[in-house]
Structure formats: structure tokens, C-alpha cells
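Support request, priority: normal
Reporter: lab tech (M.K.)
Component: structure prediction queue

Hi team, I submitted a job for Zinc carboxypeptidase A 1 from Pyrocoelia pectoralis yesterday, and the status page still shows it as pending. I've pasted the exact input below so you can check whether something in the sequence is tripping the parser. The sequence length should be 420 residues. Please let me know if I need to resubmit or if it's stuck on your end.
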Amino acid sequence: MYIVGVFYSLLVLVSANYESYKVYSVIPANRTHIELLGLLLSTDKLDFWSRLSYDSRSVDIMVPPQEQRDFIMYLKKHDIQYEVLIDNLETVIQREHVKQQLIPRTFRGKISFSKYNTFNDINAYLYQLQMDYHNLVKLQNIGTTYEKRGMVVIQISSNPSANNPIIFIDGGIHAREWIAPAQVLYIINQLVENPANRDLLDDVDWHILPVANPDGYEYSQTINHRMWRKTRSQQAKNCMGTDANRNFEFYWGLSGASSNPCADTYKGPKPFSEVETQNLRDYLLKIKKNAKLYLTFHSYGNLILYPWGYTSELPHDEFELRTLAKEVNDAIVKAGGPSYTIGSSTNVLYAAAGGSDDWAKGVAGIELSYTIELPGGKKNGFDIPANEILKVVNQTFAGMIVYGKYISVKYKDTWRFPEK
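Reply from support: The job had stalled in the queue. We restarted it manually and it finished. Here are the results:
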């Protein structure tokens, strides 16, 4: 009776916001279908959960009740196959919310991989690591967000004076993709707290930003706004936020982004209009001399992507990017994880300019630049069940070992930066 009472009390504390919203798994059969679905990308009425791709894989689209009739008519008119993946999104969100609430809270300064952690819990963990492992960990606040939250980078190094090459990692630039910060936190946890991985610090420094969009992440933790994707800046037409991953100044706005301030893929009024992307830009430019690998985690789709996102042309070092990605994928599969699709963003997916990975390579000069789209929750949408978080992040970490060893071997004894 007690559990039933808790369950009921948790439900009545929140109001329904996604009642009767459906998620459709749409299956394009050819390039024409893909182009027709691409016409829907910029609307503020539909929400693409997974990225539209050219390999005819299914794409998951959330549709509000008032748009479902027209949406189905559009698909049928063009003979595009579909199925209902989630019949009522509110039910999924409520169920996961209740599960989260029933998980015991962790002590301050600790982190859990059996639940999704709050932004405050994440920062408390970083500060605790700095206290407990002061010989390995240094924190740097790289700036504040629109709502004045601090963006904290953890620098992990066994020998800061060695001036080693840097691997930079971020996650959560899209607020609702909670598994991304969880993955980044697990990487931090394994690098700092697991002595078995200490060799990954011998010749490489790791700079990691767990949450690149703190305001949006915090906002999405409230059940009424679970599907929030953007930042939280005030825009025109009483719309809030910008898609931070369309806001970087590298072929900004060329493709795959919306000019509608209410759309989920809104590119912003100008490049780097968002203070969050400005902070990330400034930090990457600060370390660009040493930074040799950029990783940004997203969800979902089981994809390892490299530039370019604005054009189908391949970068000059595409062979190295692809070969390394295959080795990472092999390690993840060997660890029990799913196989990832590998390729340049535009050739695997629908074109989208203004992303952080393109900018990191094209402007900051970080040659090895990747977006990793982690697995999703299938009928649970973005919510990989809490009891599966550890499995996913552990499997993916096997690939991070490959990245770390590759950078170590590539630059060990053959290259060192001059002292400043």
C-alpha cells in the first residue's frame, strides 16, 4: 500500500504535458522519401528524435495530437511507411519519472549510474574529485550560462607540466539527451577513480565538460519539459532557446537548421549568439595548440560521425578518421555493445551545418573530431531505462580506451609542444 501511495502522490504532483503525443518510426524507402521528410525538419510542429539519414534507416518523429492527422496523410500521400513507436508519450515520461523518484538519493559529492543525475549533483561530484584527487584533477569554470550556471571543465592529468596532447570531450549540448552527460561522467569516473585506467593518463591529458547546455538540461529535468532540446535564452515571438549545435560559426545556417525561433533546430539570430557556445568556443581556442581529439556525445542513433556536416565532400584525412572510428566501434562491440554506423555526417545523415564537430575541426584545427550518437531507449525514447545506464556507458568506454591509446601512440616521443 505504501508503494502504491507513493506512486499516486508522485503522479499528482505533476501535470500532463505530453498527453496523447505519439512517436512514429518512419521508414523512408528511397532518396525521394528522405527529401520529403527533410522538408518537415524546419517546422516547429514536429520533433525529430533521431537524425534523418541517407541509408534508409528509420527516423523517430514526435507528433502532437493536433498534427497527427495531417502527418499521417502526408506519409500516406507519398507512400512512406511508418509505425507507432510510442502511443502516448506522457505515459512513458510519467513512468520513468516515478522510477527516478523512487531511486535513493546519492550523498553529495557522489555520483550514480543507476539514475540520471541533476546538474547540481554533477558539479558536486566534480568538486569532490578535485578534493580527493588533487594530484590528478583540476577544475576550471569556463563561463556562466544565460541563467548564470557555471560551466565547469574537469582537467585530468598525471603530469600537467608535461604539456601533453589533449582529448576534449563534451556532452549534453542537447538538453534532453540525458545519456550523453551520463556517458561523459562515466569516462571521468573511470579515468580518475579506477586505477586500472591510469595508463590512459601517461601521455594524454583529458579536458571534459559533462554538460554543455546546463540551463536546458536542468529545464528538461522538470517533467513538463522532458523533451526540451535547446538553450534557454529569450528569442523573438515569445520563443525560448537556440539549438546550440546549429549555432557554431562554420558555414552557419547553410543547411539543416531553422530560422524559426520556435523550432527545435533554430540556428539562433547569429553565429555564437548563445553564451554557452561562446564559452565552449573560447575554451577550445585556448587549448587548440594541444587539443588533438574532440568528442561530443549525443543521443540517439548508434552513430560515429566525423566532419563534414555542411557538405558531402570529405575531409583530407577521412581515411584516418574512418579507420580510427572502426577500431572504436570494434572495441564497443567486443565489450557487448551495439555496432555503430560510421561515416561523415552529411554522407550518413541529412546535412546540418553549424555543429560543434565541424567547427572544432574547421576553425579550432582539432583534426580528429567526432560526434557519437549513443543508443536510445527504443519504446522509451530518450529515456534509456535507469537500470541499463551502466551497461551502455561501460560498453562505450571500451571505445574511449581506443581513442586514448591512439592519441598516446600517435604523439609519444615524436612530438611535444614547446613550453609556453
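DSSP finds twelve helices and twelve strands in the chain. The radius of gyration is 21 Å. Let us know if anything else looks off. Ticket resolved.
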